[in-house]
Amino acid sequence: MTESQRYRRLGKYELHTLIGEGAMGIVWKAYDTVLRRYVALKLLSSHFGKTKEMQERFLREARAAGAIQHPNIVTVYDLGDAEGQLFIAMELVEGRDLSDIITLREPMALERKLDLVIELLDGLHFAHQRGIIHRDVKPSNVRIVPDGRVKIMDFGIARLQSADASGSGAIVGTPTYMAPEQITNGAITPATDVFAVGCTLYELLSFHKPFEGESVHGVLYQVLTTEPKPLRTVAPSIPAALERVVGKAMNKVPHERYETAAQMQNTLLGIRAALSGAGEETTQRLGIRWTPLPGPVLKLVTQAPMKWRITVLSALALVVALLLVSPSPPAADEPTGGRVAPPGPVASEIPPVSLALSARRDSALAARDRAIQAGAQKNNVSAMVLAEAMFQVSEQALVAGNQSQALNGYVAVVDQYRKAEGEARALGQEAAQMLQRVTPVVQAIPSGPAAVNAGIFLARAESLQRQQDFTMAKVAAQSAEQVGIDAGIAPPSSQPPDARGAVDVLLTDLGRALASERVGNVRVIYPRMTDQERAGWESFFRDWDQITARFTVERFSARGAGATADVRALFEYVPAGGGAPRQDRRRFGMRFEKRDVGWRVAAVAELK
Length: 608
Description:
The protein is α+β, with helices and mostly antiparallel strands. Helices cover 48% and strands 17% of the residues.
């Protein structure tokens, strides 16, 4: 057998050694028989080539990633399709991942840690300038090559996933390092990568992740709502200036982070210089330039195409002129009442009105405020649209001096705003119930890509709910539930209003959960399951196959939001080791509780 015959071939590549495996596919150390060099050959999962459109999108995005040539970025050599298999051939980089260094808590000088992150930011800024955002910066994607340089791996690969090549609409990223806007489906910008660099630097300096939780959902919730422990409480020797840099990079509001990776890099270079003594070379690397223009204005001008710069500067000059001749705005301490500006006339346009008319208008404005605070305007409920039109007509009548028409309009619009408030609160309650229904489904998904995607959708739904975007919150929650269903976790069935009927439906769901042989499905029906009970169910599923369960309620008592019952159970199964079908009869005492989303099992005890 010749040397070339020893290896599987894919086009011109010989597949030598399996390097790794992930959600995108598998990576081989391969030999390019034409150019005679070793490469890292990533074979993409089959879902990337389901249709011609997906293949074209994949190739387009991969070419964009391949256009990046930088010393700190792994180079893409080739991409294509061989024998129906999509592949990307990349530079084979020896060395160790930053995640290994962090896991082993290897001692490393602070200056060296800063040098690594400075190089990481250099590569990211280069790509950002060319319109490519990594989207999945994390220690395991940062490789330290034997000569000490940093290489960013999988650059643009996350972009391929997020291009919806899989058709799932899933957001791509690693929960601990994902920026809030990735979770809430916001705009992805260079600041998204800056957030991930901040998380990576936090972990490199302290050997602690900034956001940790018992589940994916817990981590995502922390990213959205919780500030990490101050860096110097877990790494006391860190300079205060460096703590501020990390804090700014990890700000939850994108525009309050560093505007570019280069800006963060320059700040770190200054701290690095202060640690070791600034020399001429460091000063040159800083590239500090004085400009009389404020930062935001300079960014606007410098990033605009040349043909637009004259227009931009002319517009700025016009704004300055207008500011010089315009009257001053109200002082900052003048009260505004906290009211959302109504779509009506300014005070100077309103003629003198009667006390009764003024009171009715104030009532209408107060009703409008309550509707807005309930989320009616944000969710564009039908009653709010009509109310706003009615209010506008009343305002126009007031300005025209037709006080009778205005009075009648203000009286009528109050009821319409109340209706809008009611519609918004109903939407909010529906979204809240959907979240309560979906949460146990997501928590029951075994760890893996499905758990990550479901957790992201659920966190997005919770964020939208807090922002009173109820319609989109329900959509995100339904997406999380669908991921759970695809992973084999079934949500409970709809239940009738009476307690006995609801418990009968619940026990039917419990039978289906047992037939699935998944503890996760049982947990959805029985959310208060203890660890000991969970271990018992796992043993149950190991010993029994092809389970069928039927439950019969013998004694039932319900009071308020609680109920108890004696339940007879008939189990039919096949022993795990094989053999004839068998039956097992048991009696249980069960306690049930009513939640906003329906009745659930609260406790189970076997009766003798």
